[in-house]
Amino acid sequence: MAEAAAPSGLADAISRWQRRERDRELHSADRAVLAAQEADPREATDVFLARHAREKAAAEALVGAVKGDKSGETPARDAIMGLQQGLAEASYWLPQYDLRRLTAELTDMSEALEETLRASGPRRRFAFAPTPEPAGTVEQSATPAAQAAEGEPPPPASAAALQGATPAQPPHRPSTLHFNSSTLPSGSPLVVSGEEVSLTGLRDQAIMLLGCPAALYIDDLERCSVTAGPVAGACLIEGARACTFNLAAHQVRIHASHDTRFHLRSSSAPIIEHSSGLGFGPLQTSSGPGPSQEDLEGHGLGEDAGHWARVLDFDWIKSTPSPNWALL
Question: What mean pLDDT is predicted for residues 134-141?
Fold first, then answer.
């Protein structure tokens, strides 16, 4: 009986050893998978935050360099856009506190860049600077009244003339033209050249901006259509309802707008916040008057980079598509 029990005990021992060996291998495989996941920067918050901080510092240096050299504008915009896209990709697993904090920091950085560009003055690619008079010259240019007396036609009125005499501005800051329901001329386009333009409180209007504004600010528009561009800086839109926009600008930011269509060409992804029912498509250049190809190329917007289809919704942090906008 003892001899028969020995082989059975040995078999049990071998079976137990084999089970332990399989368990050890499974645990080793699980640990290897866990280590690989922890090594993946997409799933490691600390790794992502450290990399984001390094890239943010580099972007801040590029923004600071724009103060002395406006040719650095494009690299600065590209750096900010790269940070925004990286943050959008990480939004589905990044903690809410970090996501809100980093989003606010990038918003502040974009605003700092736009403020730096505004402080540096508008671009003057298509504006002919007046020839300075030699020192000591007494003769002055003829006034419109003198031109009329001599039979010369007066120069065409611009949007600035519709506003009346504009107070003198510092040379580094463009003037701002404000238009509302009382001051907007009916049925005629607005001609601008380097000014900032503000459109406020308009209803059922078709607005055509000819020329290249330094920036475009839009607030509280309803059932309006706006065609403009290229805008040298940013286009900021707030409170648009049931409107249609055909715009070319380096940056487009949309806030608290609803049921509105955007046909865009930009050098960065549009940003939306507190908005719904928005549609995005490419800039329309084939039908009717609008931005000329020459002006678009002169402002670095000659090619459609497809940014209009990469909308960043700061209210939607999930990995699924935002319900607040769609492609047209």
Answer: 46
pTM of the entire predicted model: 0.50
Q: Residue 63, class by beta-carbon neighbours within 10 Å (0-12 exposed, 13-18 middle, 19+ buried)?
A: buried
- The pLDDT of 87-93, averaged and rounded, is 70
Minimal CA–CA distance to 260: which of 240, 231, 238, 290?
240
- For residue 220, the one-letter residue type is D
Instruction: 83-92: list long-range contacts, CB under 8 Å, 24+ apart.
Output: 83/52, 83/55, 83/56, 83/59, 84/268, 84/269, 84/271, 84/312, 85/269, 85/310, 85/312, 86/52, 86/55, 87/52, 88/312, 89/42, 90/42, 90/48, 91/317, 91/318, 91/319, 92/317, 92/318, 92/319
* pLDDT digit string, tens, across residues 196-218: 899 999 999 999 888 888 889 99
Query: Rounded CA gap, 287 and 230, in Å?
Result: 17
CA distances from 270 to 55, 191, 242, 314 (A): 21, 26, 18, 11
Rounded Cα distance, 277 and 113, in Å:
29
Q: How far apart are CA 211 and CA 228, in angstroms?
A: 8
Q: Name the pLDDT band for 253 (thresholds 50, 70, 90).
A: very high
On whether the CB atoms of residues 259 and 253 are closer than 8 A, the answer is no
* Helices (H), ranges, the chain: 2-39, 45-65, 73-90, 96-119, 144-149, 159-162, 293-298
| C-alpha closest to that of 248 among 222, 210, 193, 279 | 210
Distance between terminal CA atoms of the chain?
A: 86
Average pLDDT over residues 272-284: 93
